[in-house]
Amino acid sequence: MDIERIRKDFPVLSRIVRDKPLVYLDNAATTQKPAVVIDAIANLYRQYNSNVHRGVYLLAEETTQAYEDSREALRRFINAESTQEIVFTRNATEAINLIAYTWAEATIKAGDEIIVSIMEHHSNYVPWFRLAHKKGAAVKIIPSKTDGTFDMDAYKSMLSKKTKLVGIAHMSNVYGTINPVKEITSLAHKAGAAVVVDGAQSAPHIKIDVEDLDCDFFVLSGHKMLGPTGIGALYARKAYLESMEPFLSGGEMILRVTLDNVVYNELPYKFEAGTPNYEGAIGLKAAIEYLESLGRDNIEAYERELTAYGLEQMQKVPGIIIYGPTDPSKKGGIIAFNMEGIHSHDIGTILDNEGIAIRAGHHCAQPLMIDCGVSAMARASFYFYNTKQEIDILVRALKKTKELFGHVA
Amino acid sequence: MSLEELFKEIIIEHYQHPKNHGHMEHPDAKSEGSNPLCGDELQMELCFDGDHIKDVMFTGNGCSISQSAASLMTEAIKGKTLEETRGIMDEYKKMLQGNSYDPDILGDLEALSDVRKYPARVKCASLSAAVLDQALQQKK
Ligand SMILES: Cc1ncc(COP(=O)(O)O)c(C=O)c1O
Asked: How far does A408 lie from chain B, in Å, by closest CA?
């Protein structure tokens, strides 16, 4: 991978912020966009925009085709069997809520159990917590082991006939841990439970094969994988989608409406009420093609190298505390940390002054913060356009932070 | 901008060695507040003597700006009348909002004047004023 050349594809990466070249290390929050994505969206509006699935004229055909091509690109990207299993949503959060308000709403009963991991983002925790509360069901939380990896033994001991649903992040947005989803799924299925895989962090970075993972639901967000904001997707097995009631209703999701009856549209349109975000889908397709052109194995290999380097260099900073696995083979390019006696917001501001963008706060993962006994963490997260030199800049700035705060009380 | 402007020595000093930190036995007023997004937390306790603030203590958790601001604020208002306290708070808010203010009234609190150049951090510095406001409202 020629990173210097790749960086030129991303206009924002050449920005100067606070008199320094931008070092963008908040990729777990959202990623920057290559020119091909920006152009795909601009071209839509310059050349063929129209509503989808409605018009009889050429522009409508073109927009509809582009929208559906995106669905096919996504199908290929996650290796789903059919485009009927790909529902466009606003983001991963909406996709999880779709499951919660339809399938889970109809399935979960009083006394049932939902199992999630302590590493979940609020978006794969709060909807289940709410549902359980409403139904009189229970949410059980799988702890993580001291090295920040998934506790398989604890999980096995929690699974029972009561378990109806297992929610698991494929990659943690704090620890970066890559969870053993295939094994988790196979155990859940033996217990008779369905599995929701939160792929918001994994899809951008590692090869996804929903057939191989054998999960029932998989969700992702376009903006975390070079795509525009406002577009995400739900993958669900066809059998589930067929049995599920619609989520939102109105236009697009019906086949026929008479004075006394409504017939829902076929899959996946039954779950796409209203004019969809075709602009987002078209941008996402350009993002997927860009990722495929780099080669997802190449991306994974390069990011692993960056992560190993990041871990090695950051561990040299005096007073740093790194959370999650420190073995680069067990995680993606996310490094959460704190510095003794310095709050993560102060770290964030000092790094900002050096042109470095990182995240500070609870990362929408407060159960995990509680588990670690902290209220906030700083987090550097990488993508394939980051470089070892940028990690060096980060490490230098962390050392400077330490100096600025002088002796630690 | 230089970082030393924002993280002045006095701010770091008050962060690492806060003044008036802890609890009092019989506070006349108590209040607390937080910035949910960043997790800064603050509790304040006040004890009045007629029109004066006889004593003030705080506890909290958070960044250097939120905690040093609380420490500096307690120093600024201890022993002051309620009217003087309100005057200090008004000037403090003006400073954080980027308006002109009277540095003589603020004293050491002026150390936080550069926070306004970092809009994301203004919330941190404002927390102590908001919590103090609440506590003062409990004074009949
Ligand atoms: C693991 C994980 N799940 C879900 C989400 C939610 O993504 P979105 O806000 O795009 O719905 C995020 C985003 O931060 C995430 O990191």
From this structure: 7
Q: Which regions of chain A are under pLDDT 70?
A: 407-409
Instruction: Please name every residue paired with A201 in a beta bridge, in sequence order, or none if there are none.
Output: none
Contact between A95 and A121 (Cβ < 8 Å): no
Q: What is the ipTM of this complex?
A: 0.89
Give the model's pLDDT for residue B41. Answer: 93
Q: pTM for this one?
A: 0.94
Give the span between the Cα atoms of A145 and A159, in whole angstroms: 18
Phi first, then psi, for residue B56 (nearest 5°) are: -145, 135
What is the C-alpha separation between A304 and A127, in angstroms, rounded?
32
| Per-residue pLDDT tens over the stretch A23-48 | 999 999 999 999 999 999 999 999 99
CA of A28 to the centre of ligand 1 (A): 8
The 3-state secondary structure of B28-46 reads CEEEEEEECCCCEEEEEEE
Which structural domains are found in chain A, ordered by start? 3-26+295-408 (3.90.1150.10), 50-292 (3.40.640.10)
Q: Search chain A and give the residue with CA nearest B10.
A: A405
Ligand 1 touching residue A277 (CB < 6 A)? no
Interface membership of B5 toward A (CB under 8 Å) = no
The domain locations on chain B are 3-136
Q: Domain B3-136 adopts which CATH fold?
A: Sufe protein. Chain: A (3.90.1010)
Please count the other Cβ atoms lying within 10 Å of the Cβ belonging to residue A306. Answer: 20
Check CB contact under 8 Å for B41 and A346: no
Q: How far apart are CA B114 and CA A349, in angstroms?
A: 13
Q: Which amino acid is at A286?
A: A
Q: Are A240 and A106 in contact (CB under 8 A)?
A: no
For B16, other C-beta atoms within 10 Å of its C-beta total 17
Q: Is the pLDDT of residue B140 over 70?
A: no
A49: tokens are 């925009």
